[in-house]
What does this fold into?
Amino acid sequence: MTSLDELAAALGHRFDDPELLRQALAHRSWVAEHHGEASNERLEFLGDAVLGWAIADIAYRRYAHFHEGQLTDLRKSVVNAVALAEVAVEIGLGEHILLGKGEAAAGGADKPSILSDAFEAVLGAVYLDGGAGAAFALVDACFSERLPDSVDDLDHLDHKTMLQELLASAGRSAPQYVVSATGPDHAKTFHADVVVDGDVIGAGAGRSKKAAEQAAATEACATLTGA
It folds into this structure.
């Protein structure tokens, strides 16, 4: 199998026009060294819109009890550079991205911004090659299992703000979050401690730094309020 065939297999889509996939992998730094080639930026633009639509559709159908604001927060929790980069790492996208010599030497294949942009470009290529159904299937396969964790995160969205307000009203210092991570890059677990005036008043864990901090803030709020 060629490199493109391997990536297509990981995506679960067989391209009628493999050139679309190749273009989706062409970073502007590579194009600058290969005149006449097109970068993946137009496909990235298209893929961004397709991703937003697909996540909105999945969230709307799956969480019928969510109001508009919750649906918006849920979409934001997965349609962001960090989440997209994590998915890109899981499917091994970085090793296939075409980078200029300088960007490659600087570790561009591991940069979240480049990974997330490339994923959106690949999604745009899948949409053009296979239509809305193929693109939706890719998004569903890559993100559906992440949504339950994101829904759990929504329950804690206000606890960091609440904690800050509780501490301010008590005349105490603002909270500091100390975060560490364990596990492989594609399945990290983050651990966070909330430190106030040198004391740890809450701890939590999650699949993202944000989720761990929110969990720690929730525990800290419970400690301060005696809940």
